[in-house]
Automatic annotation (TrEMBL):
Domain of life where this protein originates: Eukaryota
Descriptive protein name: DUF2470 domain-containing protein
TM ranges: 200-220, 240-266
Pfam families documented for this protein: DUF2470
Species of origin: Penicillium chermesinum
Keywords: Membrane, Transmembrane, Transmembrane helix
Domain DUF2470: 101-174
Length: 312
């Protein structure tokens, strides 16, 4: 939104998502440039930062605000953060409030470390462990210089940006391209979710079977398993398990090993779990015991994460 007040020779340049934002009046500061951040809400505008003389809706008197430029972030659906730049037309050079190189670098390092790690893995074939702690060192219109574990890497930006105003969109595009090249999902699995509900029953039965059938002799009277796990009360069932043990245990191990491999390729890897990491061991160990129930829990986690992203 751009508005020009010819009488006062004042230009209001709105950058962002402001909708139907009207200022009652703006008093010019003699020195000209007065960058101000407004947080727009229905029927109300609140001064949030910047410096200069000004008056907005909801204020009955002129007030002077001194502060540093900072973007507002809000999760309220009715609020729209809108950076504004106020300047007089007497100035032939106007300082832009759009994204600067330093701001982009600081923002990426502070809030988008995961994306930087993805860039190195996708475009420089750096391993997940070596990409840990990636930080932007420099940003050009045609490349991104990232340092990780003391090594500098160059990530190309193709085609080159015209200016740094394109940076946000291009970083988002690089993030999506990285995910596609690596076969990853937007969702990242960051924790192990233990069995709950009927999964506890599945986990318990499978673990009981592993313990009971690990040695065939454990199913005979006098063994610890036979005496303490209830088989002595069900001798016929014990005899049945003893008979099928040579087939049951190898089959169960083979099926669950296959499920562990499948879990990595269709769940853990797409959701960003590094091979042989602590999280990988937790999920793989759980899958080896209980099997398909681990797929269900990860699937539920991913669905909830996607719903959360849509709400935001």
């Amino acid at each position: 939104m751009f508005e020009t007040n010819l009488e006062s020779q004042l230009v209001v340049a709105s950058i962002g998502r402001a909708q139907d934002l009207k200022l009652d009046s703006i008093l010019k500061e003699p020195k000209g440039i007065a960058p101000i951040i407004f947080e727009y809400r229905p029927k109300r505008v609140r001064w949030a930062g910047g410096h200069g003389w000004g008056r907005g809706p909801g204020f009955g008197a002129d007030r002077r605000f001194i502060g540093t430029f900072s973007l507002l972030h809000t999760q309220r659906s009715e609020a729209i953060a809108a950076p504004l730049l106020l300047y007089t037309s007497h100035w032939h050079l106007v300082r832009s409030m759009t994204m600067s190189k330093d701001f982009i670098i600081k923002h990426m390092n502070a809030d988008h470390g995961d994306s930087l790690k993805l860039f190195l893995e996708a475009f420089n074939e750096v391993s997940a462990s070596n990409a840990q702690g990636a930080q932007v060192e420099d940003l050009g219109l045609d490349n991104l210089i990232i340092r990780a574990k003391g090594i500098r890497y160059c990530v190309p930006i193709d085609p080159p940006m015209k200016d740094y105003n394109e940076a946000r969109a291009r970083m988002v595009a690089l993030h999506k391209e990285s995910l596609q090249k690596l076969g990853r999902s937007e969702v990242t699995l960051t924790k192990y979710i233990p069995p709950h509900g009927y999964h506890i029953v599945i986990f318990g039965l499978c673990l009981f079977t592993y313990i009971s059938c690990f040695q065939r002799s454990s199913l005979l009277p006098g063994s610890w398993v036979y005496e303490h796990l209830g088989y002595k009360y069900l001798p016929k069932f014990a005899n049945f398990v003893y008979a099928v043990q040579p087939i049951l245990l190898p089959s169960m191990v083979a099926v669950h090993l296959f499920e562990c491999a499948l879990l990595y390729f269709i769940r853990l890897k797409p959701y960003g779990v590094p091979l042989f990491s602590g999280l990988w061991f937790a999920w793989t160990g759980s899958c080896f015991i209980e099997g398909f129930a681990t797929f269900q829990r990860i699937g539920q986690f991913a669905e909830q994460a996607k719903k959360g992203e849509k709400k935001e």
